[in-house]
Amino acid sequence: MLLLLPACFLLLSLNAQQSSPDSLLPVRGFCIAAPAPKDVDRFIKFINEELATRKVNTLILRIDYDYQYKSHPELADSNGLSKKDIDKLVAACRKHNIDLIPQVNLLGHQSWANKTGKLLAVYPEFDETPNVKMPEQYKWPNADNLYCKSYCPLHPGVHKIVFDIVDEICDAFQATSFHAGMDEVFYLGDKQCPRCGGRDKAELFANEVRLINDHLAQKNRRLWIWGDRLIDGKTTGIGGWEASYNNTYRAVDMIPKDVVICDWHYERADKTPVYFAMKGLNVITCPWNRPAVAVQQTNDMINFRKTATKEMQPHFYGMMQTVWNSAASFLDGFYNKTPGRDGSNNTDWKCFVDMYNIIDSL
Asked: Which residues form the signal peptide (predicted)?
């Protein structure tokens, strides 16, 4: 017997499919530093009550060395998360079908201000610029152009160590993806490095991306990175922080097409997702603490998906709120509705709320 449905019912069904969260934005993400052990339960409450209700489906936790690593205990933070803590976070995300992705900064961000990160503190031989000494008091700009240190990507011992860490944290997260950071890499191909000096910086960057991607692929894991080093900062006028001044941008044509690009712009809604999609790369737009910018970026991403060619449409992957202070500070601001330092609504928690309100309304 043929069942004929009213035309209005078919139209409603079609509209529902077209406006479903996954069709509007396949990735609806949230990225934040991993909570300290004492804040895990409070953060799980946030997952249950705030992320899940907003249909967030991707959570990136920046771990670095804040985990009790067994493979390299010399790199583990003494107050890092335990396997039991991670298990609780994994269970909470699995309950709500949230893809939990760990991040460990690779290549760049091996120091911050006047403090050397764990990797270079324990293995100083991996330093790309050992001649640059950490200052007692950090200031920018400085004579050494020091922002963050990098490890030397051509050092013969570095990848054995970092890949042990990557594998262990991915196993703990039961992760199918891994975020390698790789943003704001200012030290690369240093002329004083006996291995990297004089080499093409774009090739060095691309080779490191390929090496990490190939390693992850052995266990069917996917690589995510920040996108700033793949944008020409001078030609676009975007500058040397959200884009590259040291010629790494040419690596965009050298990296595997299955790498996911997290495209961060915080003060303007730059249209660089189109650039990445035209290169055949999947791209996620990442705001921070400007609600008005995040709302524009969300509308742009949805419009890109609606108006792009069928070849480019799948590459516009979605939106991801980023938070650049501790999980505890964010939770305090979110639940207390704390204004920004200037008394405005320019906060990461208000940005998160406004961005997901737009997504929900659509």
From this structure: 1-18
